Amino acid sequence: MGDGPGDRISVRERLDAERRDTEARIAALHGDFDAIVEANALVAVDDEHDPEGSSTAFERAHTASLLARARDHLAEVDRALERLERGDYGRCERCREPIPPGRLEVRPAATTCVRCAAGTGR
């Protein structure tokens, strides 16, 4: 990754867009989760004996898992923004070599190069 001001602006824009998308995903998942809980409250569901109960429990757990993953991703994006401010963005945290631009394009919050992520780095 280059170190010019234009590069930093485009990286910031990409990270900001990633942050907005993740926040929107979190809001949508909250809505889904709340709808599942509300639907269960309207119907006396006995997860053990009701044939629909197990699928409802699965939906609730699956949505909670997606929500946790989205929150983790938001934290990763925030840490990437902090690295950008410090001037560390785009360097592998293990070997300190530059992370290839293609990897950062696909995973803007990446902290390691492909070699280190695969466990074959220094």
From TrEMBL:
Name recorded for this polypeptide: TraR/DksA family transcriptional regulator
Keyword hit for Zinc-finger: yes
Domain of life per record: Bacteria
Domain Zinc finger DksA/TraR C4-type residues, every copy: 87-118
Organism: [Kitasatospora] papulosa
Keywords: Metal-binding, Zinc, Zinc-finger
InterPro entries: DnaK_N, Znf_DskA_TraR, Znf_DskA_TraR_CS
Segments traversing the membrane: none
